[in-house]
């Protein structure tokens, strides 16, 4: 091995940026012992150069001027941790055009402008590495890019947003309602002051766009992912589902269907409590992958946070320094938008089982009425739960679990049920996701 | 990307060899679509060229003559799937000296002769890739080599042998005894006709030698790993431990201790039933890793079998073809035997909690007698279980769980307890392993 030195620049000196600086500056000896490479963090750019940070940079490293980083030709690897799809895009483009390899945790940017950025990187003969963009410290990008590359990936099921998982785990464990639990998550630092992009499923969709592309080899756009958040999840449904053996998670799902189409979706999902993903609690993330050769592989760990995310960023810095990221970036292929035209399954065609809660008025003929609507749409009932006693407005909650049916049948049926005289308000509908079991016995 | 062609040779056309051939020959289009590389399996060597296999090779590919492979200079990557530490070593040496990169699943060979083989590979400017040697289809080697490389790994806990895990899971679920369950495992193909190396812990030690080296950056030898198997595990202890909240697993453990020493051991271990590893059942494998930055990361999947292992072999073939394996092999460092002299913790110094079952004669003063011995050795009791009624030879099983103590204290105490008049036979002693919880709440 040859001892070499690699100079690194960083833009965005926030929480994760400080974690990265800590690993590169304070733990440089660990990296050097493992890789034979001396990493030097020579330039850190942030508009705020005043606020004290939990890491000490060498003098002269921190600057508010991006040009300093761009003009330093000794910097090989540039890390973008600004986030968002605005200025961050300009920064990455400038980094690439200045001849630097880019390492980023910016899932939103890659999900929205990934194709354009990858193209610019190719033109500049540079690469973009993004292990940290999905599931924080879990090495899922490298698993898809290397260890599992021999597989035709048939499905992935991910818990990719720690904020949502924290909220749903708490609601489930403690019987609290959504608004109250969100406040608690904010107080504990598991949800941001503006939690919109987490709880509306947007963040998970960004990650699924990136992982789906790697898993299925398709050039994907954010619009390919159907997205629903957890804002409307109620304690009642968590409790009823629990009684029926299910647990509620915000899942990111990618499936290759028998007809060759790929379904990509993020939505609250009921999964059987025995499923491994059902046991992923609090701010943790996990991804179950199914490969045609390997069967199921599950990866679990911290999907966010200062040091776990920094761990992934620095892993990429090393991989770029070794030249491996560039080779994988150049060589690992995805099918273009033209090649996959019509290959993304429309949500209306997606089949699943459903959990429905109807607030039925306590009259004769109610069951016959909604039963007929479901039957008319070819939907059959696999289980039901109706406790004695009244709910609000003198209605009775009736919970129904259906067999598989297409989304469009269910939405048509629900529209009709909503119109029934004997029903109070719009029914609640949550998809049930049956994660395959890779099992011998 | 440039479309290129890579020619591959394979020695050992058994179960995994057939799986590899299937991926390279029958699924060549998947690999080509993902990597832009056309893999050609041009030579398969096996002494048995007659027995029909579940995969069809092109004419002229199968031969019993290793020289055909060695002399074909167009073959860049050679796969060794012969297994064992004898002829396989000669084959790998010849492959390397013939200028081929080596891909192997041979954990025994690498654990015993790894240092020598790596040295020969370096001299030949070639690499050895071994993702398939540990935990089958689980991409644990690539996780340690890439995605988690920025971490100082503080501990790893692995279920690395599917045969043992199948047997222990069955014994636990069905109340069967060891001998009977082993027979069933053999009938179902989860244990070999000669299961010695699986059930005596040898196979797990091989894997721990390899993973420990990657995780801690030490040049390890098989002798560095303390090893016990599951041959003496009894149904009684599984049942008593279950009552006390524990589950029995054969664990491979690597820990970096506060004094800087590394503990490496394979033995039956009781772990709390709520632990993630406790839920790994049947022939599955899993590894919990703890990194100073990333926290806990867990990987789960199939640790053996034709296609899962082939998935890992072919992932390495791709990685070698991309040039990435070679760079990692050249650059990723381990400390030499001289540098780590005295750094492997002796088993006698290892601290843990213990489960002890004593067969006490039903006399006054028994508790005082063994209690005194434990106390004299500074061992304090954290829990005990004694059901009413008699066991064999008119003895009563008394189960004790201790606080942490060093192995040597416990073995000294057990030797004395064995000598007590009031005790029937040698006590059973099983280590309790407290896997840290990476948890916020």
Topology, element by element:
The structure is a homodimer of 441-residue chains.
Chain A: E1 4-11, H1 15-26, H2 28-35, E2 37-45, E3 62-63, H3 66-71, E4 75-80, H4 87-97, E5 101-104, H5 107-123, E6 128-129, H6 140-147, E7 153-159, H7 162-174, H8 178-187, H9 196-199, H10 202-216, E8 226-227, H11 235-243, E9 246-256, E10 262-272, E11 284-291, E12 295-302, H12 306-322, H13 324-331, E13 351-361, H14 366-376, E14 381-385, E15 395-402, E16 405-406, H15 407-419, E17 428-432
Parallel strand pairs in A: 1-2, 1-4, 2-3, 4-5, 5-6, 8-10, 10-17
Antiparallel strand pairs in A: 7-9, 7-11, 9-10, 11-12, 13-15, 13-16, 13-17, 14-15
Question: Could you explain how this protein is built, in words?
Answer:
The structure is a homodimer of 441-residue chains. Chain A has 441 residues and is of the alpha/beta class. The first copy, chain A, has 3 domains: 4-133, Rossmann fold (3-Layer(aba) Sandwich); 141-300, 2-Layer Sandwich (Dihydrodipicolinate Reductase, domain 2); 348-432, Alpha-Beta Plaits, CATH 3.30.70.260. In chain A, 37% of the residues lie in helices and 25% in strands. Chain A is built from 15 helices and 17 strands. In chain A, the strands form 2 sheets. In chain A, strands 7, 8, 9, 10, 11, 12, 13, 14, 15, 16 and 17 form an 11-stranded mixed beta sheet that branches. In chain A, helix 4 runs parallel beside helix 5 (107-123). The longest helix of chain A has 17 residues, at 107-123. Chain A is elongated and about 80 Å long. The two termini of chain A are 47 Å apart. The relative contact order of chain A is 0.12. The model of chain A has no long low-confidence stretch (mean pLDDT 95). Strand 12 of chain A pairs antiparallel with strand 12 (295-302) of chain B.
């Amino acid at each position: 091995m040859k001892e070499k030195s690699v100079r690194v620049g960083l833009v965005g000196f926030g929480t994760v940026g400080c974690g990265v600086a800590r690993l590169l500056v304070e733990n440089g000896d660990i990296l050097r012992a493992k890789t034979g490479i001396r990493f030097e963090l020579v330039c850190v750019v942030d508009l705020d150069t005043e606020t004290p940070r939990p890491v000490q940079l060498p003098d002269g490293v921190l600057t508010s001027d991006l040009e300093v980083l761009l003009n330093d030709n000794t910097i090989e690897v540039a890390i973008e941790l600004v986030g968002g799809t605005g200025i961050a895009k300009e920064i990455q483009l400038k980094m690439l055009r200045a001849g630097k390899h880019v390492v980023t945790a910016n899932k939103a940017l890659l999900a929205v402008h990934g194709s354009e950025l990858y193209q610019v990187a190719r033109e500049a003969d540079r690469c973009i590495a993004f292990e940290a963009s999905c599931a924080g410290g879990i090495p899922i990008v490298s698993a898809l890019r290397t260890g599992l590359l021999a597989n035709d990936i048939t499905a992935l099921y991910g818990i990719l947003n720690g904020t949502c998982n924290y909220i749903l785990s708490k609601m489930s464990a403690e019987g609290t309602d959504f608004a109250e639990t969100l406040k608690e998550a904010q107080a504990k630092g598991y949800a941001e002051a503006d939690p919109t992009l987490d709880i509306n499923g947007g963040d998970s969709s960004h990650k699924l766009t990136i992982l789906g592309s790697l898993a299925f080899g398709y050039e994907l756009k954010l619009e390919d992912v159907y997205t629903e958040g957890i804002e409307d999840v109620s304690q009642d449904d968590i409790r009823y589902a629990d009684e029926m053996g299910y647990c509620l998670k915000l899942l990111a799902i990618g499936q290759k269907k028998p007809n060759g189409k790929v379904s990509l979706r993020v939505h609250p999902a009921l999964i059987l409590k025995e499923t491994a993903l059902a046991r992923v609690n609090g701010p943790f993330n996990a991804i179950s992958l199914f490969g045609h050769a390997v069967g199921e592989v599950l990866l679990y760990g911290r999907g966010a946070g200062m040091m776990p995310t920094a761990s992934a960023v620095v892993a990429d810095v090393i991989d770029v320094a070794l030249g491996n990221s560039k080779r994988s970036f150049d060589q690992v292929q995805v099918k273009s938008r033209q090649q996959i035209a019509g290959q993304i399954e429309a949500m209306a065609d997606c089949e699943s089982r459903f959990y429905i809660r109807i607030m039925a008025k306590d009259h004769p003929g109610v069951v016959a009425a909604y039963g007929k609507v479901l039957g008319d749409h070819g939907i059959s009932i696999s289980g039901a739960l109706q406790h004695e006693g009244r709910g609000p407005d003198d209605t009775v909650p009736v919970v129904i679990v259906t067999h598989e049916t297409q989304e469009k049948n269910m939405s048509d049926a629900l529209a009709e049920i909503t119109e029934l005289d004997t029903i109070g308000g719009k029914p609640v509908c949550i998809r049930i996701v049956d994660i395959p079991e890779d099992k011998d016995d």
